[in-house]
Amino acid sequence: MNTIKRLEKIVAKRAGDDPKKSYVAKLNARGVPQIGKKLGEEAVEVVIAALVENKKALIAESADLIFHMIMLLEAKGLKFEDVLQELERREGKSGLVEKAERKAKEK
Ligand SMILES: N=c1c2ncn([C@@H]3O[C@H](COP(=O)(O)OP(=O)(O)OP(=O)(O)O)[C@@H](O)[C@H]3O)c2ncn1[C@@H]1O[C@H](COP(=O)(O)O)[C@@H](O)[C@H]1O
Description:
Elements: H1 3-14, H2 23-29, H3 31-52, H4 55-75, H5 80-90, H6 95-106
């Protein structure tokens, strides 16, 4: 089983545990708005690490970001696999082409 899947299992298992004993349980108990807030903070920390810190810091902040993304997806009944499927669906289509098509539809 890969790392993401193992982590998802842990997050799902811990979600309803005692908030005093588990970070996942504690944040999960605060609901989607707080998980989302934390995710946003971690995204900012990734950008700061990329701009002014070293590669080790960027890796650590990226891990925090992905971990909290997994928590948010779990809270919404989704899996990382759902995101991977969307990325796979987009494979082979340039972002520039996709945007042009979307803009044309909006007209
Ligand atoms: N991968 C992670 C993981 N990554 C990051 N974090 C926590 O996410 C938080 C990141 O927030 P910050 O960097 O802002 O640090 P903070 O201490 O919260 O800072 P402030 O909020 O005080 O500003 C820290 O508390 C980290 O410990 C994680 N907590 C848990 N996991 C995984 O989840 C499992 C279950 O954890 P528990 O639920 O705590 O048992 C663990 O075994 C790990 O596998």
